[in-house]
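Dear colleague,

Thank you for sharing your sequence with our group. We've completed the structure prediction you requested, and as agreed, I am returning the results in plain text so they can be pasted directly into your records. Please verify that the sequence below matches your submission; if there's any discrepancy, let me know and we will rerun it promptly.
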Amino acid sequence: MKVIIEAQHVCEENPRGIAIYGIQLIRRLLDRRVNQYGLAFFDGNRERNNRKWMDKYFGEFAIPLHECNSLSYKQLAVDDDVYHEKSYNELTGASGDIFHFLHVITVPRLIYGKTIVTIHDLLPLRYPAYFIGYQHLNDSFPACAKRIRDIQPTIIADSESTKSDIIYFLGVSPDRIHVIPLAYDGDACFPQKDGSTIRALGINAPYVLYLGAIDARKNIIRIIDAFKAVVQRFPDIKLVLAGAPNINAKETLASIDSTPIRSNILLTGYVTDQQKRALYAGAIAFLFPSLFEGFGLPVLEAMACGCPVITSNVSSMPEVVGDAAVLVDPYRVEQLAWEMERLIQSETLRKELIQKGFAQCAKFSWDRTAEMTEEVYRKVYAE
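Please find the predicted structure tokens below.
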């Protein structure tokens, strides 16, 4: 079986989210050597030099690359007329039995081969306000959603929560949706204390941690509001906010700068894998009361590093953490503050959650994700 994977969204210097999924999945599939694989991507006029990322992440595998330089993927996402002139196959020079698209906005209308699409979430449809500033998503997502409704491809969803949204918003039959969970990188996430890395980040006190994009959807303003109450009882505790700001972070950053407990808050910016592991392993608790997630990779990473987790009781988070985390209503600031204080005070509770976290994250692996994905390929190929 020949499988072409649309790898556009792995072309990132600092991968997160979909890029991490793409890199990890593709590498595992290539390692397993079950099928013949090729990678396709768009880079209009080679303006992004995407080929260097293909070489960086997959060069050791000598995998065939199919590069289209006449168009960018953003053009394709909004312009169905392109496919009146040429198919996806003609544009990329790729032929295969199965075409797997790792992001919904790159799905073509005209293609020769069976189509599989991974949909991580439908945030632009469910919560469009979070995407103010992301013009290419605002422009492309309605057209892409219509394309999915029209062509009815086989879909891979990260979670049962995302599957429910796909059924509701896109009208896809449930039997065409396969739930395949994500995983964490065991080579990067493991329970090892690293005080020197923590000190190098300017952290010299006990801390609770948020790690991820600085983004309106991540509920950081309520984290800060809850932390104000915690600081009244534990004035030496710090809140570390690790991650780069997104386009829509203006209000969140303003709240951070204006809070009376600003001196108790540390912003690190983007962190490396080593820094991330050290932050997780050294924190009293990991705070992830996100308003919505298609999966929520950071909670798995935190558990793998031996960090107790407080996360939301909505969307996909309960699926991912099971009984290994404290679940809170993401809109209830007082509940989040109370649970933070409970973890700060109780070493017994922290140890219990750490052990449950190890057991829970052991259920997830990228090899399992790849194996389940191959099973979908086989099923679709046989149809």
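Summary note from our side: The chain has a mean pLDDT of 93.

Kind regards,
the structure core
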